[in-house]
Description:
Layout: H1 2-34, H2 36-56, E1 61-72, H3 83-88, H4 107-111, H5 114-121, E2 124-127, E3 130-133, H6 134-141, H7 175-190, E4 192-196, E5 202-209, H8 212-234, H9 236-269, H10 278-312, E6 316-321, E7 328-331, H11 334-367
Antiparallel strand pairs: 1-5, 1-6, 1-7, 2-3, 4-5
Helix pairs in contact: 2-11, 5-8, 9-10
Amino acid sequence: MEIKKMNNSEIKSEQVSTREFIKSIFKFFNFLGQNWQILLIALLLGTGYDTFKNTTTSNDKEYTGQIVFHLELDGSSGQNQLTGLANTFGIGGGQSQGGDILASSNFGAIVTSVNVFQNAFMREVKMGDRKDLFINIFVDSSDIKRNEWAGNFFSGPSAYSTYKFSKKSIYDFTPYENQIIGDVYTKLNFATELVPKENSSLFVLVGKTTHERLTKLWLETLMLATEDFYKEMKTKKTRQLLEIQSSRLDSLSYLMRNNDKKIARLTFDLPNVVDPTGPMKQQQLTRDNNYLSNQYYTQLANVENLNRLLFERTPIFTILEPVRLPLTIYSKAGISTRINGLIALFSMIIVLSLRKSYLEIMRDNQIQ
């Protein structure tokens, strides 16, 4: 019986504590409702302050541009008269491979890849009267110095903002340069997007920065870097094979010249020298010369066909709508305004709660 009484008392105490907790919550919201004028004033003051700050001191505006283009990867290679030659050399493009890195399904990921971006950063470009690497122009013309590299309460401005890149391969970057490249890539990757145009085979490359001419320059530079990447990857096997075949053509040309010299010397010496084997040597050299000539012209035809195949396999980028000034301008004030208004509201709630608790404690002390 005593155990049952103890259990019942514990249950009742838990019910009382839960009831008191719920009652305290309602009292707290009732308290906030009684002070709604103060909370509203705090919200309006926070929002008004940030609105004033954004309209008077903030000059960061985003300029958005776009390029509409068409990419022809395979062209008419399936119907080309050089398809047989390509298949003979093992570089035929008529068949479709699901694992092909240059497939159209991978195009968006390739355009915004680190490799393509870094090659764009290392391109020499011109903006106004300044001619420099794109990454140096971007660092000086964008807001990265004022935001990402500006420092904070705990650390000063980053030394990245004073570093200047020189022309080099993307594979020769130092660890320090890779850190700078990483920050610039993160910023531009967030500001760049490739969107397929609805109901068409066209693509729209969209970019935005805080500098109008910089946005235009970035989109044009990225397009050139993407085109170079596709040309290099799409024609890689053909160029390697062309190099081998051209080297063989040079070897045959050397052998032909050397054989022609031997024939000329033998023809000159034969009437003046009594050599029973002379006519036989001349016949052998003539036969070798005919063989080398046939090999040379066959190889020359192969090299010419490979050059034509190289042209056929080069992807074609057709720009339908280039970037045109002036660009669309967007303001970045909206989000920060709402955030500062909410910060002011919650700060006032904390202040009122502390004041209420302090007054209750002082009242209890006076009663005692």
